[in-house]
Design goal:
By secondary structure, this protein is α/β, with parallel strands linked by helices. It has ten helices and 17 strands. Helix 9 packs antiparallel against helix 10. The longest helix is centred in the last third of the chain and has 15 residues.
């Protein structure tokens, strides 16, 4: 598990911070995100902020969080921010039990789990987005392009060798070996799994029949690995392997990544630019939950996911609440400039402003 230079263990003593409120809700009403990248500088007054903010969760966003923690320390030196990336499921569990002040997650809270959140209403703050890659290790083949239906067949176990006609149809002129396909997936509760399986479910429920969620019941013939980095490592070590890995981790591991056919019929490679194009066509719920899966747009990468910081709306401890507000404000403003170097896409300006407006609704003290 990666850790920041200032990370400590998530302290059990933080259980004494009582966070109160009501349960969060969802709505299908949505708007588009807008097309202009955000990243404006902040006029937030960071002076006087102090305290320790512990977070846990998504490994998808961890590279950005680590860069942002370093940057935030220069504007709020008396605030220590720690982050343990145990997966989105772990982050949501830790937040529900008030072990942490903030959770990183790439997926939303199930309605059946809302009563378990002891601090009340949870707010979603999208911070950055990135492609979920279909990464592979296939000797003699450096480039692949795959339709969404073919991806569903591969991960659904209906295509089991690399020279299957479905893959060959997507890759005319490419010599494909008869190597067996080894599917690698996450073993932990994962927002990356949630978003990837949601894409498959929406696109091709005939070939993908395992449903969607932070975990699904994968066939025994597949391999499991912990966190995005673990999946990347398993792919590296296995000829014939394929798995879903966030773009920052796939890039760090120098994995081969397939171009995926989007709604416009174009095969698009994962990149920060193609993720930004997907965000421009995404929809956003009133709770700021972003749907950037298979959007319109010729240059959109179709498996793009936003990632969130989750916090309680009611913050009874004034010092911690103000520090938390400052941290999230930094992520939404000055911190956006750190997205691209960490292989993430910035928020569109419209979504950034929506998130900042929501941040003003925190009930502190």
């Amino acid at each position: 598990m990666r850790s920041t230079t200032r990370r400590t263990a998530v302290a059990a003593a933080l259980l004494s911070v009582a966070l109160l409120g009501a349960a969060c809700s969802s709505s299908k009403t949505s708007t588009t995100t807008g097309t202009t990248a955000g990243g404006s500088t902040s006029n937030f007054d960071y002076s006087g902020l102090s305290g320790t903010l512990n977070g846990s969760g998504s490994t998808f966003q961890q590279g950005f969080d680590e860069a942002a923690i370093e940057g935030f320390s220069s504007v709020a030196p008396d605030v220590t921010v720690n982050y343990a990336g145990g997966g989105s499921g772990q982050g949501k569990t830790d937040l529900s039990n008030q072990v942490v002040q903030w959770a990183g997650s790439d997926s939303t809270i199930k309605s059946t789990d809302l009563p378990n959140f002891k601090g009340g209403t949870v707010l979603y703050f999208p911070t950055v987005a990135a492609p979920i890659t279909v990464s592979f290790n296939l000797s003699g083949v450096d480039k692949l392009q795959l339709s969404g239906e073919t991806v569903a067949k591969i991960f659904g176990g209906k295509v089991t060798t690399w020279n299957d006609p479905a893959i060959a149809t997507d890759n005319p002129g490419v010599t494909l070996p008869s190597t067996a396909i080894t599917v690698v997936h996450r073993s932990d509760g994962s927002g990356t799994t949630n978003q990837f399986t949601k894409y498959l479910t929406n696109l091709d429920p005939t070939d993908w029949t395992l449903g969607t969620g932070d975990t699904v019941n994968w066939p025994a013939t597949t391999q499991a690995a912990a966190k995005n980095g673990g999946v990347a490592q398993s792919i590296q070590q296995t000829n014939g392997a394929v798995g879903y890995v966030d773009f920052p981790d796939a890039s760090k591991a120098n994995l081969k990544m397939a171009s995926i056919k989007n709604k416009s019929g174009s095969f698009v490679a994962p990149s920060t630019d193609s993720a930004s194009a997907a965000l421009a066509g995404a929809t956003v719920s009133p709770q700021l939950v972003v749907d950037a899966l298979n959007p319109s747009g010729a240059t959109s990468y179709p498996i793009t996911a936003a990632t969130y910081v989750l916090i309680y709306q009611t913050q009874p401890n004034a010092g911690i609440g103000k520090a938390l507000q400052g941290w999230v404000n930094y992520l939404l403003t000055d911190g956006q400039s750190l997205a691209a170097p960490a292989n993430f896409a910035q928020l569109p300006s419209g979504l950034q402003q929506q998130a900042l407006t929501q941040l003003g609704t925190l009930q502190i003290g």
